[in-house]
Specification:
The complex is a heterodimer.
Chain A (H helix, E strand, L loop, with lengths): L1 E10 L2 E7 L1 H6 L5 E5 L7 E9 L4 E7 L3 H7 L6 E2 L1 E6 L10 E7 L2 H14 L3 E8 L8 H6 L3 E6 L6 E2 L2 H10 L6 E5 L2 H11 L6 E4 L15 E4 L2 E4 H4 L2 E3 L5 H7 L4 H14 L1
Parallel strand pairs in A: 8-9, 8-12, 9-10, 10-11, 12-13
Antiparallel strand pairs in A: 1-2, 1-6, 2-5, 3-4, 3-7, 4-5, 13-16, 14-15
Helix pairs in contact in A: 2-9, 5-6
Chain B lengths: L22 H4 L12 H8 L24 H9 L3 H9 L5 H7 L6 H4 L11 H13 L16 E5 L3 H12 L3 E5 L8 H4 L8 H13 L3 E3 L10 H7 L2 E4 L5 E2 L12 E3 H10 L17 E5 L3 H12 L4 E6 L10 H9 L3 E4 L1 E8 L5 E14 L5 E5 L5 E4 L2 E4 L3 E2 L3 H5 L24 E3 L2 H4 L4 H20 L7 H10 L1
Parallel strand pairs in B: 1-2, 1-4, 2-3, 4-16, 6-14, 7-8, 7-14, 8-9
Antiparallel strand pairs in B: 5-15, 10-11, 11-12, 11-13
Helix pairs in contact in B: 2-3, 2-7, 3-4, 4-7, 5-7, 8-17, 12-13
The structure holds flavin-adenine dinucleotide (FAD) (2 copies), iron/sulfur cluster (2 copies) and FE2/S2 (inorganic) cluster.
One flavin-adenine dinucleotide binds next to strand 4, strand 5, helix 2 and helix 9 of chain A.
């Protein structure tokens, strides 16, 4: 059992939980994830570590409440216990000094990019960070990300804050201005990552995306998480979750993530009616 | 019954029948298929045994048991009705009797060597073992199990499958302090995530794990070695390490269309259903869906488990697609028989060619091709050859790939000086020693996918060698030995 030590809402539908897990905190690296099972009857779901502290012995997750399991996490309070927590899983982000790095986050990706951009900055890169959300209320980690940015842009779909439009608009602009870009890092909705990868491809800008296939064990045992990279099958949990965005088959990923929609909806309906 | 067999022993030619759930009933539930025998029947079955003596030229039941249970001795106790003593004799060699009594391929092992079996049906040794383990489980709990005073030595066991649990149980009984590191939330390995409830109720596995815990073994779940601590780090805190991480990596057909929705590895399917209990959805949250027809590719125990599980999840037809003929099916005969009884359709001498999608990216058909058998290959089985132009289509909403498992690469990958073979298994000598001093390995990670009892046999041998290493002689074979082993295999 793993105790929640702190619970807070970042936006109306994003929960951040700090969980006591000293052994995981000691080994965690930016970009890795954990498998969380809230209760004994619960589902195992993958969540990226939005932060971790070996000193405090805690790991932090931020979850967008989209279905039964994430909504269940959304109700967790300090002192509550989680049934199972496995990690750190997946390969860590490759954090080298490459020069100018543009990191782009959308939606829940904002919470996940923070440890990565912080580390990119610490590695000595010039960091250009672009964050976006549907509206101002859904923005998060703004101050934190800004504090590790050399250049910083905010976008909202409805124009309630920053640039009125998409994160991809800013990226296009930077490219049009002939800005030197050595690497792009994108984390967020699949459609966003796909658009970004399509923009950078003609310019051959190395682009890393963080994929979110449906997982079961998270340790390479089942293949639920398989993704197609450069025409070859890879396992998201052990070969990823980060991949070269120019090689990802996004259509396949989108289709595979729809596998259980009727069951997910039934589970959610049941959960919401029960409480 | 038993009275009749007294004095001039007249041999009862057949095993006393095992009551089973009716096939029509059981395909609607996940309850165990064989329901177990009562004490009277067990005693009668035991009386079919002739109490043979082993000889240099005479092989008997015990010679077929990989963990060398004193079979005649325990059967004698059953004849006398002394079940407590009988199970004690089994427990001397066997840490998971309730499991092996159910899933051991005893027809080729102990029972395959039984003298009675030469002319009649062999003594039902597996059933007797199962009966005794079940009897024991229904006795009041005994609390802690007596163990000798601590030796002061600490052992880490990586993986809580049959191999790891055997090592843990045996070394704890010798007074060593053992910690098991298990990646999943429950121990048991394939016994909990692979083999279905209707063949091996999970409550039985948990109670066997509990027995091992009561002998003082510490179990840490959710602990992935290689991601948390590495084997090298374990060696700093422990005097020896056993690696029993199994063959958990699914093999694929690599045919076109394999990544369509509705196509899963047997591991994913069985893990969803068994470990995550998707068969109890929505009481449990993990979903699984089969549709009208399920096609399972493969012919081993794993394939039978998939096909039979699919029926229980409500598909209308469950088809096994296997490239050789009935005679070559690698599954246990009993499993094939149970599958046939339940109405699984066997499409033999046929292999998949590609998977065909509907408009939404779901699989809708398997294109397959007929095969014929040619000359025997290296394994001695006749090689399947395609019959050109014989392609045909089978509708399927779900396709399960059950064509094999490979060794789990995580520990070898994160332990640089651990030698592996080209199949990816960890190279070990006959005592289970690896190329790294203090590190032993066994079970499927060393042998490739095999059986529960062979994994336990490996565990037994390794535990003996580890005990010797910890208490008497800490010498280690020269590196060249493993160099050679890793090439030979
Ligand atoms: C490596 C990895 C890291 C992740 N990190 C995070 C994270 O830090 N924070 C976070 O909020 N989410 C993260 N996800 C996604 C998260 O795992 C899913 O949102 C979660 O499993 C949904 O579970 P649920 O029961 O609440 O919803 P479900 O009922 O399972 O699904 C509800 C809806 O979400 C969609 N969905 C289902 N599974 C996924 C998925 N894997 N990815 C995206 N959408 C999905 C479904 O299509 C459905 O519409 C990550 C996924 C991966 C693979
Ligand atoms: C569906 C199915 C049906 C079968 N039916 C039969 C049968 O009827 N009869 C029979 O005799 N055999 C059967 N087998 C084979 C048998 O189950 C295996 O041979 C046996 O379980 C091997 O035991 P093991 O201890 O080596 O490995 P496993 O049982 O695979 O256990 C390995 C354990 O190690 C854990 N692990 C892996 N990596 C790590 C890590 N890095 N850190 C920590 N833990 C880790 C795993 O989670 C797992 O719990 C079947 C197998 C399958 C898949
Ligand atoms: S362990 Fe297996 S082989 Fe040995 S006696 Fe029991 S059933 Fe037979
Ligand atoms: S070989 Fe058969 S008859 Fe002989 S002792 Fe063993 S079980 Fe009994
Ligand atoms: S989630 Fe099972 S292999 Fe990746």
């Amino acid at each position: 059992m793993y105790e929640v030590v702190k619970s807070e809402k970042l936006t109306p539908d994003v929960i951040r939980l700090e969980i006591s897990a000293p052994h995981i905190a000691k080994k965690a690296k930016a970009g890795q994830f954990i498998m969380v099972t809230p209760t004994e009857h619960g589902e195992r779901i993958p969540l990226t570590m939005a932060d971790f502290s070996p000193q405090k012995g805690t790991v932090t997750i931020a979850a967008l409440e989209v279905g039964k399991t994430t909504k269940q996490l959304g109700r967790m309070k300090a002192g509550d216990k989680l049934f199972s927590l496995v990690g750190p899983l997946g390969l860590p982000t490759e954090l080298h000094k490459v020069g100018n790095v543009v990191a782009i986050g959308g939606g829940i990706g904002l919470a996940l990019m923070y440890p990565v951009v912080r580390a990119l900055k610490e590695a000595g890169n010039h960091t250009i960070n672009i964050i976006g959300a549907r509206n101002e209320k859904l923005l998060m980690y703004e101050e934190e990300i800004k504090s590790v940015s050399d250049e910083f842009f905010v976008c909202t779909d409805d124009g309630s804050k920053g640039h009125h439009g998409f994160v991809s608009d800013i990226l296009k602009k930077l490219i049009a201005e002939n800005k030197k870009i050595d690497m792009v890092y994108a984390v967020g909705p699949i459609i966003m990552m796909k658009v970004i990868a399509n923009i950078t491809k003609p310019y051959n800008i190395h682009t890393v995306v963080s994929l979110n296939p449906i997982m079961v064990d998270g340790t390479g045992m089942c293949g639920s998480c398989r993704v197609i990279i450069d025409g070859k099958t890879k396992f998201g949990c052990v070969d990823g979750p980060e991949f070269d965005g120019h090689k990802v088959d996004f259509e396949n990923l989108t289709a595979r993530n729809k596998r259980y929609i009727p069951e997910e909806q039934a589970a959610l309906k049941r959960f919401m009616e029960a409480k | 019954m038993p009275e009749e067999e007294k004095k001039p022993k007249k041999l009862v030619p057949k095993k006393y029948p095992m009551p089973e759930q009716d096939p029509k009933e059981r395909i609607h539930n996940f309850n165990e298929v064989p329901m177990g025998q009562d004490a009277q029947t067990a005693i009668a079955e035991a009386q079919r045994c002739l109490q043979c003596k082993r000889g240099p030229n005479r092989k008997v039941c015990m010679d077929g048991c990989p963990v060398e249970i004193e079979i005649p001795a325990f059967i004698k106790k059953v004849q006398e009705g002394d079940f407590a003593e009988a199970i004690k004799i089994i427990r001397q060699k066997q840490n998971l009797p309730a499991v092996c009594g159910r899933v051991c391929p005893y027809e080729n092992q102990c029972e395959g060597f039984c003298i009675v079996g030469k002319k009649n049906e062999p003594v039902g040794i597996g059933r007797l073992e199962r009966f005794l383990a079940d009897w024991e489980r229904n006795q009041p709990l005994q609390g802690k199990i007596d163990v000798p005073p601590p030796t002061g030595k600490k052992v880490a066991v990586v993986g809580g499958g049959p191999a790891g649990l055997t090592v843990a149980g045996d070394l704890a009984k010798l007074g060593h302090k053992v910690t098991v590191f298990e990646a999943l939330q429950y121990c048991g390995g394939v016994l909990v995530y692979g083999i279905p409830e209707f063949r091996l109720p999970k409550a039985i596995v948990y109670s066997e794990v509990d027995y091992i815990k009561r002998s003082g073994v510490e179990i840490l779940n959710d602990y992935v070695i290689g991601k948390l601590d590495t084997v090298d780090e374990l060696l700093k805190d422990y005097d020896a390490v056993f690696v029993g991480t199994g063959a958990g990596l699914p093999d694929w057909t690599n045919l076109p269309g394999e990544n369509l929705n509705g196509i899963m590895s047997a591991n994913e399917f069985l893990t969803r259903v068994n470990l995550m209990k998707a068969f109890k959805f929505p009481d449990y949250d993990t979903p699984v869906r089969v549709g009208e027809r399920v096609v399972t590719i493969g012919g081993g125990n794993v394939a039978m488990d998939c096909a039979r599980t699919s029926l229980r999840l409500g598909c209308k037809e469950s088809v096994i697609l296997y490239r050789r003929s009935d005679a070559e099916l690698p599954a246990r005969r009993e499993e094939v028989h149970h599958a046939q009884q339940e109405g699984v359709r066997f499409e033999l001498l046929a292999a998949p060619v590609k998977f065909i999608a509907d408009d939404c990216g779901n699989v809708k058909q398997v294109e397959a091709i007929r095969m014929q058998l040619g000359e025997p290959d290296a394994s001695g089985r006749r090689r399947p050859i395609k019959i050109e132009g014989s392609n045909f289509l089978i509708d399927a909403q779900t396709v399960l790939i059950a064509i094999g498992q490979s060794p789990n690469p995580l520990v070898p990958m994160t332990t640089p000086d651990l030698k592996t073979t080209k199949e990816g298994t960890i190279a070990v000598d006959e005592a289970g020693r690896t190329s790294k001093k203090g590190v032993f390995a066994g079970g499927d990670i060393a042998s490739g996918a095999a059986t529960v009892i062979l994994a336990m046999g490996d565990g037994k041998r390794a535990a003996r060698a580890m005990h010797k290493y910890l208490t008497e002689d800490s010498s280690w074979p020269a590196p060249e030995v493993f160099e050679k082993l890793s090439c030979e295999m």
